[in-house]
Each structure stands twice: as structure tokens, then as C-alpha cells.
Design brief:
There is one protein chain. This protein has a six-stranded parallel β-sheet with strand order 1-8-7-2-6-3, covered by helices on one side. The chain has a two-stranded antiparallel sheet with strand order 4-5. It is an alpha/beta fold. The two termini are 22 Å apart. It has helices at 8-20, 36-46, 64-70, 84-96, 142-148, 159-172, 177-196; strands at 3-5, 25-29, 52-54, 101-108, 113-122, 127-131, 151-156, 204-207. Helix 1 (8-20) crosses helix 2 (36-46), helix 4 (84-96) runs parallel beside helix 5 and helix 6 (159-172) packs across helix 7.
Length: 209
């Protein structure tokens, strides 16, 4: 049975409990624009007693030059536009704790490109947060990601607010309002439907008021 959490302090308590129970890798998923990075920030602010690291899935976006070669530029953000093998391999290295530090990429939104080696995840990290759209997707590659995570939370949000936030994000990073609305309607919403279908597989649903 999926647990529902409706308060940030309760969410932080749940993360602490995961660590106390021997877990370490916590995934946060949800549709584009739902506020996954925001939730990570709130958990970081409430877990100052823990050594916490953060590895976003977005760093494993394929570069535009690769998307162009594969003919996938127009669906950037879809599951096929990520290096899921690289993401799973990095999580596996983190889970094994055999290396003093594991470096991972970050997605630089001003460049709209991944930047390699920008994040350090030390072996000493007690909790590792990773967020992304497709953590619960039942497809080859993504299933390997889910198997490496000790727990996965699904963040739910009011649909109208989520879409407005998503359009505003695209505008902030260079699209015109019309371009942003068109991209959201064509691409982001298709991905959102795909993600929403995975909700039932989450360990926890976070629904904040």
C-alpha cells in the first residue's frame, strides 16, 4: 500500500527513518514542472544533521549534438533522450561505496546542456537524493535504476499550477511565451502522462497543500 505524506516535516522524518533503517538512495519522481528540485531543496534544509548528497537525473540528458545525430532533438526530455545506462552505472557505483567519491554530471539550464563531473557524491554520504521523471518507468534501463533505489517518492501537484510553472520555466530560459506553451502542450504533457502512469509503483506519494 502506498503511503501518502502531506507535510514537509513528515517527509523529512520519512527520509531520516530510511537512513535509520539502513537505506541510503532516495528517488523523487513526478511529472515535469511538479517541483521535484524544490522538494529536494526542502529536504536538504531539514536534514542538516545528515551528510546528504544530491545527484539529479537531468545531468544524464544526451547532449544536443547527439540528439541531432539521433533525430531526437524535437522530443528532448523524453525517456529516449537520456543516458539511462550511464545513470544506472553511476547509481550502482554510489551504492557499492567502493570509491572515495563518485562524480556525476549536472544539467546546466542556461546552456540547456549536461556538464560532466560537476557533482561529487562522497562515500561518506548517509543519504543520496536523486530526482527525475522516469525513476518508476517499467522499461529496460529504467528498471535497473529503480532496482538501485531504496525508496521512491512520487510528488503530486495541482495540474494547472504545474503547467503554469512549466511554461514560466521555459520562458525564463529563453523561449517566447508562445514557444513555451507549444512545447509544453506537445512534449512536456506527453511525458507527464507517461510519468503519471507510474504513480502506483511509488513507495510514497507526497501531496503538499
Amino acid at each position: 500500500m502506498t503511503i501518502v505524506v502531506d507535510d514537509l516535516d513528515r517527509a523529512a522524518d520519512r527520509a531520516h527513518r530510511l537512513v535509520r533503517d539502513g537505506g541510503r538512495l532516495l528517488g523523487i519522481t513526478g511529472a515535469p514542472g511538479v517541483g521535484k528540485s524544490w522538494l529536494v531543496g526542502e529536504l536538504l534544509a531539514r536534514a542538516t544533521d545528515l551528510d546528504v548528497a544530491h545527484l539529479p537525473m537531468d545531468g544524464f540528458h544526451l547532449a544536443d549534438v547527439t540528439l541531432d545525430r539521433l533525430g531526437l532533438r524535437d522530443v528532448k526530455g523524453a525517456p529516449t533522450t537520456f543516458d539511462v545506462g550511464g545513470y544506472a552505472a553511476t547509481l550502482r557505483r554510489i551504492a557499492r561505496r567502493e570509491e572515495e567519491v563518485v562524480y556525476g554530471p549536472v544539467f546546466e539550464r542556461e546552456l540547456e546542456q549536461p556538464v560532466a563531473g560537476a557533482i561529487a557524491v562522497p562515500r561518506a554520504a548517509e543519504l543520496v537524493l536523486t530526482e527525475g521523471n522516469y525513476l518508476l518507468l517499467e522499461e529496460p534501463g529504467w528498471q535497473a535504476v529503480r532496482a538501485l533505489l531504496d525508496e521512491v517518492w512520487f510528488l503530486a501537484e495541482d495540474e494547472e499550477l504545474r503547467v503554469r510553472r512549466l511554461v514560466a520555466r521555459h520562458v525564463a530560459f529563453g523561449k517566447s511565451p508562445a514557444e513555451a506553451e507549444a512545447w509544453v502542450a506537445r512534449s512536456d504533457q506527453a511525458n507527464a502522462r507517461l510519468v503519471e502512469a507510474t504513480r502506483a509503483r511509488a513507495d510514497v506519494v507526497v501531496r503538499l497543500t
